Amino acid sequence: MSLADTGLGSLTVAELNATNVYSKTAIDNLVSSLTTADSALSTRIDNLSGADTGGLRVYEHDYGLYSSGVINHPFALQLGISSATPPTSAQVLLSMDVETGVAVNTSLTVVNNLSVAGEFDCPNIYTKSELDAIMTTKYPMTDSTNWQQLGLMRLNSASLGGTMKICTNKSYNAQSDNMLQATLELTRSGGSSQAALPSGSVNFACTLRGSLLFPEVRVVQTSIQTYQFWVKLHSAAGVGFFTVVTSGSFEFSGLIQTAAPSGIYINPLRLFAHNVDGLHTLQVAATSSLLKLKGGASGVQLLGGGNELLLEANTVAVSILQSVAVLTNASNTSFGLTNTSGSGFASNYMTAAGVSSQLFVGGGQFFVGTNSPNPMRFATNRFVNGTSLTIETSGAVVCNTTFTNNSDGRLKDLVSYTHLTLPTKRIV
Prior knowledge:
The protein is mainly β. Helix content is 10%, strand content 35%. Among the domains are: 18-70, no CATH class; 75-105, no CATH class; 130-271, Immunoglobulin-like (Sandwich); 348-415, no CATH class. The longest helix has 26 residues, at 24-49.
């Protein structure tokens, strides 16, 4: 060691060892180790982003508002926990691909909310459409002055159908008779059809059983698979509701319009098909053993297919406007008239072409006669034989044939005193 007098100069040390400093060799070894590790890490990262990986990229990207680590591949990604390379399919816990999406092959726990923008599919959970198909759903009726479309029923195959129950009323007054209910049932055919309005045909059958004065309903066929239901309530009706059960599907509408619905539809009057077993209304009461019809102020009428009057019953009489045929499979077919008052008469009147007649019993006698100035004639097999006896309008009796048996001699004795002045076979 040599130092100048001033204390300045150089100091040469062959080797220095101290506990508080790193030697040159130790530092070189440390730097060499760090360089090797950095090179290995860079190589691994380069391999993740290199061409040999088939497009796998692992990198950090600056999105502007934030930076994020990114792992992407042009086709699929798999995440597995395994010492095997590659992991087996059972060891892949999460897989993602462009065709099937994301698949979780193990249990998944969501601590906070799970949001699904599309459809949720789970074998032990009903979807909305599946639940609607098997459950009774209640829908509102939103208007009481216009035509409203309740909805559209879709029946994709033959024999499918549905039932709709409608509950409403015909006024706001607190009266039980104002409540209206109806049950509408529809079944799609397999190809058969029936006539519809305004022209054409429909491929379904439909009935509507409901309360008296239930409003007009139309079922419009838009295709062989789809059917619209329309109703027009009474002007003072309250807003009601309806329920639907169907083997197909139903889409609620609520559409309101003033004009009557167009298209091919069933005539609303043909929808009503009443089963009167157990039916009770103001004019009709029925049980399994008895049916009662109560007429209005003018009575009860029975009409034919063309609305022609067939029978009318009121407090005055029962009028039958067609011929009556009594047909029975019995030993004695009868038609009887009985007066149960204990006095008076039981009469049968016949009138035609100005001639009136009457058969009656009562007053101790049986009477046969005319009530107009017309004769009475008696004959057998009248289209072959002539008239046997006539009672003229004047009351004279004319016998047009001979008398036989016991009566013949007596009649001759009676006429022996006057045979010179009376016509033969004429009795006055």
